[in-house]
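Handoff note, outgoing to incoming analyst
You'll be picking up this chain. Sequence as last confirmed:
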Amino acid sequence: MGIVTFNFNQATIESSNCRIQVSNGTFGLDPNNPVSISGTVTFDSLQITTSQIYMGVDQGSSFNATVDVPMRANPDATPSVMVSNFQGVVTVTWPTDSGMMTDQLQSSNALPLSDFQN
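Most recent structure output, in case you need it:
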């Protein structure tokens, strides 16, 4: 299982229904590899499943946080991630065979995690 990091820097919440989602993979819900959220965020609600992290946050508020999520790719598939209802750029970092890879993600656009290493 690899750790995927989402860095939200001065992102603005467009809706109180914010999500981080994965396709062709699953988020790990293991007490030995927990999901970690750090930063200046106030949640009204928080739900974590194997396919998404749902965050209830006040619309229009600033979101400055780092979210570390254990993830496993489906066999023979390239996982992709997406964030929803954020304005601004989110930086995503994930493990590969040759080291860490980083790219930027816009809200509602899927980002394939090329060469993702479980």
